[in-house]
Amino acid sequence: MGLLDRLKSNKNNKDFFEWLDLLLKNELDSEIKAINFNLYEDMNNKWSIELVGTFSFNTDNDDWACDEVFTTRDKTFVIERESDWKSMETFCIDLVNEYLSFGKYAGKLKEYQAIGIGFVDGDLHILYER
Q1: What percent of the chain has pLDDT over 70?
Q2: Would you list the DSSP string of 76-118?
Q3: Total-model pTM
Q4: What is the pLDDT of residues 81-129, one digit of tens each?
Q5: What values do phi and psi take at 121, rounded to 5?
Q6: Which pLDDT band holds residue 8 (cuts at 50, 70, 90)?
Q7: What are residue 128's phi and psi, to 5 degrees?
Q8: Which of 72, 78, 102, 121 is deepest in the core (most CB within 10 A)?
Q9: Cα 98 to Cα 37: distance, rounded to the nearest angstrom
């Protein structure tokens, strides 16, 4: 079994890859300059990931992630997992990094100025910058 097969054999990874593939197979708003993955702590050991397209990007100001042009707020990816927020953040960072390495539309994501991730009320982590 190859590395990609092993990554996809993990249910969360496989489901996340499929969720992102469905979003990225279509053209996103042409005004998007950067992508951010917003993380949310829901209730009952559930966590949500939302993809946001922004019309600005600034490494010195995390508020760039608030300049939303596109959002998947009504179609978030939900993970059910008992975890603290820090471990979940690390898990989600790894998930997005795996997609950036092996995902079907990773090249399309890398066309944007940057890709960030973080909890909506926390710090952002830049995973990719052109």
Answers
A1: 91
A2: -EEEE----HHHHHHHHHHHHHHHHHH-TTHHHHTTSSEEEEE
A3: 0.89
A4: 899 999 999 999 999 999 999 999 999 999 999 999 999 988 899 999 9
A5: -110, 20
A6: very low
A7: -155, 140
A8: 72
A9: 14
d(C-alpha 76, C-alpha 47), whole Å: 10
Distance CA 17, CA 108 (A): 14
How far is Cα 55 from Cα 52, in angstroms, rounded to an integer? 10
Q: What are the residues whose beta carbons fall under 8 Å from the beta carbon of 54, sequence distance 6 or more?
A: 32, 33, 34, 35, 36, 64, 65, 66, 67, 68, 69
Look up residue 75 and give its two tokens: 């179609």
